């Protein structure tokens, strides 16, 4: 058997950073002679890239491994093999425990050790391997550069991790433990990767970080750049039309970044800025390090800089000690901000986090009720935001085929999905679109003009 015939299958859970990491692992495996498989049944190596953020997310891993174990045995009976790897945030949090609980797992690797994947894979043939140290070297310096063929097939939008880890230690959150301390990638490495993405046809890059606006990267001359400066440099790359970033923390929303929303046309008018709760008492218990009025003030400054900016957020209901009054403060904040989109969750106690040990845990039935009320309010806000775009002309980046033949889906500057009638050959174009109707989760529009080039960004301000 030649090495080039081996196949891998990567299944990704959790956040966008896991999606990005899975791509980088696929590139590392390509260098080892692995090709992607269509289905896990055909794979010699199956990797689960996991999420530990809430209990449900973490438990999925074990049910997935249970299913894979049957496939692994079937392949073995047929004279083949299937190695099973668990990587990502559950791998980091649970380490050895995974192999104890699920002996079919051959390989456990935490998020900071992916550059060692080929070597650990070889070692796992002699018995299960668990790697959850935080190495001193940066994995991205040692992973192969993204493969142009994979980038081209991925379409006109791409993620690019610029910052990883978190030093904030919100009392409910596992991320500082699973991803480690804040680290920013050097400016030159990011610009180089962005150039490669653009050369492969990417028109829109979303910069990723657990706390992306805490970015502090070293430039070639030794200077330290913040996120605003990095965005400005990226905006100068010819062919890169749109820039987004996520996830931001209100504490790190500095004046330069707010000004970037006014000054840099390629920076899209959409910001995911989680607040979690509208109650000062709960914000303090969560260790969010700001008050609700600070959040209102930031949003006011953002709207002064870019009046049409669309906001999105994350919310947790049922944090320990949350009273009806606290929850009402969250509802009030939601009504006053007017989100274009949002994610909301029931609080899930996570092992090892301070809030899990607090008394006053909120009963499940109360969490369910509050979540339903909050989601109804957020859905109304989203529907209102979408309806307000009807009759407007928006610049839409055509991304992929839609549900019906002859239909394509693109994104507005505000990250709304827009269905248009278009030829698949127009993938990657930015087209001026008249919005005809709006649903709760998407828009329908008619292309009025299309084309290439930066002048089309000007349309994004047209209403
Ligand atoms: N770095 C980002 C969030 C990462 S986790 C930030 O600071 O905003 C994504 C979202 O999951 C969080 O914003 C939060 O709303 C939710 N989340 C995190 N831990 C949670 C928990 N224990 N229970 C419920 N939701 C949680
Ligand atoms: Fe988690 Fe808070 Fe860090 Fe976000 S800022 S990753 S919620 S600890
Ligand atoms: Fe989940 Fe880890 Fe992302 S816990 S949300 S995959 S950083």
Automatic annotation (TrEMBL):
Give every TRAM domain span. Answer: 387-449
Task: Please tell me whether the keyword Metal-binding is annotated for this protein.
Answer: yes
Quaternary state and interactors: Monomer.
Record's subcellular location: Cytoplasm
SUPFAM superfamilies listed in its UniProt record: Radical SAM enzymes (SSF102114)
In what residue span(s) does the MTTase N-terminal domain sit? 6-126
GO terms (molecular function) for this protein are: 4 iron, 4 sulfur cluster binding; metal ion binding; tRNA-2-methylthio-N(6)-dimethylallyladenosine(37) synthase activity
**EC number per UniProt:** 2.8.4.3
- InterPro entries attached here? Elp3/MiaA/NifB-like_rSAM, Methylthiotransferase, Methylthiotransferase_CS, Methylthiotransferase_N, Methylthiotransferase_N_sf, MiaB_methiolase, rSAM, rSAM_horseshoe
A Gene Ontology term for the protein's cellular component: cytosol
Cited function: Catalyzes the methylthiolation of N6-(dimethylallyl)adenosine (i(6)A), leading to the formation of 2-methylthio-N6-(dimethylallyl)adenosine (ms(2)i(6)A) at position 37 in tRNAs that read codons beginning with uridine.
Q: Record-annotated residues binding [4Fe-4S] cluster 1? A: 15, 51, 89
- Keyword vocabulary terms for this entry: 4Fe-4S, Cytoplasm, Iron, Iron-sulfur, Metal-binding, S-adenosyl-L-methionine, Transferase, tRNA processing
The cofactor binding remark recorded in the entry reads: Binds 2 [4Fe-4S] clusters. One cluster is coordinated with 3 cysteines and an exchangeable S-adenosyl-L-methionine.
The protein's name = tRNA-2-methylthio-N(6)-dimethylallyladenosine synthase
Where does the record place the Radical SAM core domain? 152-384
Concerning SMART domains, the annotation shows: Elp3
Residues annotated as binding [4Fe-4S] cluster 2: 166, 170, 173
What this protein catalyses is: N(6)-dimethylallyladenosine(37) in tRNA + (sulfur carrier)-SH + AH2 + 2 S-adenosyl-L-methionine = 2-methylsulfanyl-N(6)-dimethylallyladenosine(37) in tRNA + (sulfur carrier)-H + 5'-deoxyadenosine + L-methionine + A + S-adenosyl-L-homocysteine + 2 H(+)
Q: Does the keyword Protease apply?
A: no
Coiled-coil ranges (or none) = none
Task: List cofactor names only.
Answer: [4Fe-4S] cluster
Recorded hits in NCBIfam families, A to Z, give:
miaB-methiolase, MiaB/RimO family radical SAM methylthiotransferase
Q: Name the protein family.
A: Belongs to the methylthiotransferase family. MiaB subfamily.
Q: Say which species the protein is native to.
A: Tepidamorphus gemmatus
């Amino acid at each position: 058997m030649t090495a080039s015939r081996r196949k891998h299958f990567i299944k990704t859970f959790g956040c966008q950073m896991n999606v990005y990491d899975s791509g980088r692992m696929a590139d590392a495996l390509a260098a080892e002679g692995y090709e992607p498989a269509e289905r896990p049944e055909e794979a010699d190596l199956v990797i689960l890239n996991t999420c530990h953020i809430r209990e449900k997310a973490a438990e999925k891993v074990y049910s997935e491994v249970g299913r894979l174990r049957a496939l692994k045995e079937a392949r073995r009976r047929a004279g083949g093999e299937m190695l099973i790897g668990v990587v990502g945030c559950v791998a980091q949090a649970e380490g050895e425990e995974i192999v104890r609980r699920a002996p079919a797992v051959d390989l456990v690797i935490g998020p900071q050790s992916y550059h060692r994947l080929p070597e650990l894979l070889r070692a796992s043939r002699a018995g299960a391997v668990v790697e959850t140290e935080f190495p001193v070297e940066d994995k991205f310096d040692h992973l192969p550069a993204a493969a142009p063929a994979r980038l081209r097939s991925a379409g006109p939008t791409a993620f690019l991790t610029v910052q990883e880890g978190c030093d904030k230690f919100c009392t409910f959150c596992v991320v500082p433990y699973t991803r480690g301390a804040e680290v920013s990638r050097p400016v030159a490495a990011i610009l180089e990767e962005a150039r490669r993405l653009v050369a492969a046809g990417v028109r829109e890059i979303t910069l990723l970080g657990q706390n992306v606006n805490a970015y502090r990267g070293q430039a070639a001359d030794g200077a330290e750049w913040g996120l605003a400066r990095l965005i400005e440099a990226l905006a100068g790359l010819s062919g890169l039309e749109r820039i987004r970033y996520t996830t931001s923390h209100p504490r790190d929303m500095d004046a330069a970044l707010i000004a970037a929303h006014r000054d840099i046309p390629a920076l899209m008018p959409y910001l995911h800025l989680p607040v979690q709760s509208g109650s000062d008492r709960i914000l303090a218990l969560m260790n969010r390090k700001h008050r609700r009025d600070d959040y209102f003030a930031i949003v006011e400054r953002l709207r002064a800089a870019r009046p049409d900016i669309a906001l999105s957020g994350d919310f947790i209901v049922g944090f320990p000690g949350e009273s009806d009054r606290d929850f009402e403060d969250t509802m009030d904040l939601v009504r006053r901000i007017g989100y274009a989109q949002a994610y909301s969750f029931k609080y899930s106690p996570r092992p090892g986090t301070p809030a899990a040990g607090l008394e006053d845990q909120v009963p499940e039935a109360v969490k369910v009720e509050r979540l339903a009320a909050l989601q109804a309010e957020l859905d109304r806000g989203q529907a209102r935001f979408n309806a307000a775009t009807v009759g407007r002309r928006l610049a839409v980046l055509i991304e992929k085929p839609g549900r019906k033949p002859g239909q394509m889906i693109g994104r507005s500057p505000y990250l709304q999905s827009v269905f248009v009638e278009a030829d698949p050959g127009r993938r990657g174009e930015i087209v001026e679109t008249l919005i005809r109707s709006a649903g709760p989760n998407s828009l329908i529009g008619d292309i009025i003009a299309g084309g290439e080039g930066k002048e089309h960004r000007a349309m994004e301000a047209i209403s």
